[in-house]
Amino acid sequence: MASPVVLPHGVEGDHLMAVLRRSGWEAADLLRAYARGQQPPYGYPPQLTVEEGRDGPVSAADRAVHHHMFQALTRSWPHVPWGLLSEETTHQDERGHPLDQEWVWLLDPLDGTKDFLEGTGHYAIHLALLHRGCPQLGMVMVPEREELWFGLEGHCWREDRQDRRRPAQLSGRRRCEDLILVASRNHRDERLEALIPRLGLAGSRSVGSVGCKVAAILRGEADVYLSLSGDSAPKHWDMAAPEAVLRAAGGCFRHGDGRRLAYSSSDPRQRGCLIASHGPCQGELEARARAAMAAIDPGFEL
User: What residues contact 12, with CB distance under 8 A and at least 6 apart?
Assistant: First the structure.
């Protein structure tokens, strides 16, 4: 384990990382099999079914990864009182909300479902451990690039299947005018299209999945990610693991007014103007976004 980190009683760090590592690669194998129309491993159903759910396409691949990841945690630590919250579990009527617990696992089994179904390869698995509402540990798996990213307090690295590790390599760009933006392929509206040129960046590229966008920043290929939305905002499970790995690498992930992201049980949406960056220009980016949004949509809550 790269550095000491606070964990629930009875959970040993090296064991936890071994379980996450193993189940992460197994989950990647599941998604890659479904994406290629192959028989998925570990006894999961062979067909890829798609239905238009409450929050967009839901597939057998989502459910398989949800089951596989949470089963690995519950089997390894059956008596640890942590909550388990996934995009899949929000469709269930539960009395107690997992986010009200001290320790919570927050999972997005398939971030970038539309990209997954379209075959772009821009999809990821997100898993974060929250302690009192703050991401403490993050894992982002990018199956098509064979990348497994981990973020702990102050340490971020990627691994391949041979367990070779490389630290995050944030770019050396230090002026807003030199920065490269990664923005959504499927979630762009007129306000975002108006905001991007007003930030004065060097260029932009379209990438699906929040995890894939943040991975591009961690590799130094890009510097900034923007999310600008209201009621159709991304959810907690979209943001928690990417925030954890980016912050562990020394980057920033905040609202346009400088507030930290909050993971509230009352509303799963991460609404507003969210800015993730490699760090050095974060304050100036937030100032430019505030000025731009005051003109684009004066009533928009950052």
Answer: none
Q: Do residues 182 and 188 make contact, with C-beta atoms less than 8 angstroms apart?
A: no
pLDDT exceeds 70 at position 23: yes
What CATH number is given for 176-296 in this structure?
3.40.190.80
Portions of the chain given CATH number 3.40.190.80: 176-296
Q: Helical H runs in the chain?
A: 13-35, 60-76, 113-118, 190-198, 210-218, 236-248, 282-296
267-301: b or e for each residue (b if 16 or more CB lie within 10 Å)?
A: ebebbbbbbbbbbbbbeebbebbeebbeebbeebe
Torsions phi, psi of 35, nearest 5?
-65, -30
Coil, strand or helix: which one is 129? strand
In this structure, whether the domain defined by 13-167 belongs to CATH 3.30.540.10 is answered with yes
Q: Check: CB of residue 170 under 8 Å from CB of residue 220.
A: yes
Instruction: Confirm if 141 and 124 have CB atoms less than 8 A apart.
Output: yes
**Model confidence over 265-299: pLDDT tens digits?**
888 999 999 999 999 999 999 999 999 999 999 99
Say yes or no to pLDDT of 96 above 80.
no
pLDDT in tens, 126-145: 999 999 999 999 999 999 99
Q: Count other Cβ atoms within 10 Å, centred on residue 163.
A: 8
Give which of 151, 126, 157 is closest to 140, Cα–Cα. Answer: 126
The Cα–Cα gap between 199 and 194 comes to 10
Residues of the chain with CATH 3.30.540.10: 13-167
Query: What pTM, to 2 d.p., does this model score?
Result: 0.94
pLDDT in tens, 222-275: 999 999 987 778 999 999 999 999 999 999 999 999 999 999 888 899 999 999
Identity of the residue numbered 253: F
Cβ neighbours of residue 150 under 8 Å, at least 6 residues apart? 2, 17, 20, 137, 138, 139, 156, 157, 158, 159, 245
